[in-house]
Write a structure and sequence with these properties.
474 residues; alpha/beta; TIM Barrel; Jelly Rolls; globular
Length: 474
């Protein structure tokens, strides 16, 4: 069997499917670095410096939700080792800070604010710890790290993600810690079986840069060696170098095409996440208040990530007061309203659909217009299956959104879009993969009675879960 035929049989886990449906969620880098104006702390700053006097987790959640995001991941411990919860395993935490008189718990307040505002909650726990004395001592530190994992994974409700970067530096003894990844994963699966383990983990793959740059063709089925932690760590940031966030020329542009997987024996479902900050840095810096990304920049990143078979993790760093800065919050709110204007109402809601083939009546073309889990599937011997969607009358649109039924794998390798006016077909776009979601955004507004989706190349069983069309509100 050819590798691409094997790839057609690879499907996501239930946790990966649920994660993919979130599409767009927040990272909140907050901690000691917020107060030292650094990106990477050295782990020696006294806890007394951590003092967000107007801390308001509810304001975070409301600002993030206003942008259309559906979850939040908090940096519970960054590389400096300072813990945002009162860990029983270290004195370097909020329990020895002025925050809430030493009785505070940032993780608890943020997790509760998320749930009160309908957001999913996730945690980031840096494996590298520049404060902890046992770092670099092998099993002693691995035990310490697992104990902290147990605290976070047991006491803050259900998590949707556990985010692990690959940073690994020397400890105080000059030794580099050998992380017990499999032991870490065992704790995660035991305590949070529905959470995806991201980046240095088996469930979600790093896009390959921190600049919001995406591949033209993003495959979720890739060679298994991409999930090996040594490979991830080798490509992770080694120093406090902000230029790293701009580097993407080293990113492999093809991970899952027939050519890329030709000689691979083991393939896995390993979807991509785009992590990018709303500011140049990951933590808050006052001198970056005028450098918040524009709506145009954010929208382009959104189109290429959420609209290109990846999820978007947008970092929004709270400031020293303990709130998301006004400019950032206003940008988030404006962006959320922009998304509603760009994709206001599905114009295909009352359309009619037909296809060149379908496997059976339960998988007919009409399913692509329904807002449920039913889907269209073409016959396997239909080499170039097509869908035709009839608005019923000439309709103006500037976006078409397509979704494969990824629960049965990622199949479509190339497709074209056509419009019909006065009984003549005209090609308006040529594309590669679809995956979970493909947003086809046009430079002009088209007017047509019908749309044709021509699948030019697929792996085994071409499917479509949903097709929508939109016209931006003026």
């Amino acid at each position: 069997m050819e590798s691409y035929q094997l790839a057609a049989e690879v499907t996501p886990s239930a946790r990966q499917l649920e994660w993919q449906k979130l599409e767009f969620y927040a990272f909140c880098h907050f901690g000691m670095n917020t107060f030292t104006d650094k990106e990477w702390g050295h782990g020696q700053t006294p806890p007394s410096l951590f003092d967000p006097r107007d801390f308001d987790a509810d304001q975070w959640a409301k600002a993030i939700k206003s942008a259309g995001m559906r979850g939040l991941i908090l940096t519970c411990k960054h590389h400096d080792g300072f813990c945002l919860w009162p860990s029983a395993y270290t004195e370097y935490s909020v329990k020895n800070s002025p925050f809430r008189g030493g009785n505070g718990d940032v993780v608890r307040e943020v997790s509760e604010a998320c749930r009160n505002n309908g957001l999913k909650f996730g945690v980031y726990l840096s494996p590298w710890d520049r404060h902890e004395p046992t770092y670099g001592q092998g099993e002693a530190y691995n035990t310490y790290y697992k104990n902290q994992l147990r605290e976070l994974l047991s006491n803050y409700g259900e998590l949707f993600a556990i985010w692990l970067d690959g940073a690994c530096g020397e400890g105080k003894n000059g030794k580099v810690q050998q992380y017990d990844w499999q032991g870490y994963y065992a704790v995660m699966r035991e305590l949070q079986p529905n959470a995806v383990i991201a980046i240095s983990g088996p469930d979600v793959r790093w896009i390959g840069n921190e600049a919001g740059v995406c591949r033209k063709s993003e495959w979720s089925v890739v060679p298994s060696w991409l999930s090996i932690n040594e490979y991830v760590a080798e490509r992770s940031q080694k120093t406090d170098d902000r230029k790293f966030a701009k580097k993407h020329n080293h990113m492999s542009l093809d991970l899952g095409s027939r050519k890329a997987i030709r000689n691979e024996k083991e393939l896995i479902w390993y979807p991509a996440e785009v992590d990018v900050s709303i500011r140049p840095g990951w933590f808050y810096h006052k001198n970056e208040d005028d450098k918040v990304k524009s709506l145009k920049k954010l929208f382009n990143i959104y189109l290429n990530s959420v609209g290109g078979n990846a999820s978007l993790l947008l970092n929004v760093p709270p400031d020293q007061t303990g709130k998301i800065a006004m400019h950032d919050a206003m940008t988030l709110d404006a962006f959320g309203r922009m998304l509603k204007r760009e994709f206001p109402h599905d114009l295909l809601e009352r359309a009619h659909a037909c296809s060149t083939s379908e496997t059976d009546p339960e998988h007919g073309a009409a399913n692509v217009l329904r807002a449920d889990d039913s889907f269209w599937q073409a016959e396997e011997d239909d080499a170039c299956p097509e869908l035709v969607l009839d608005f019923g009358a000439e309709t103006a649109f500037d976006s078409i959104v397509l979704q494969e039924n990824i629960s049965t794998g990622q199949q479509i390798e190339a497709f074209e879009l056509y419009i019909n006016r006065r009984n003549r077909w005209k090609k308006i776009g040529k594309y590669t993969v679809i995956g979970y979601k493909k947003i086809c955004r046009f430079r002009k507004t088209y007017h047509a009675k019908k749309i044709r989706i021509a699948i030019k190349k697929h792996r085994k069983k071409a499917t479509m879960l949903r097709v929508s069309a939109y016209k931006r509100e003026e």
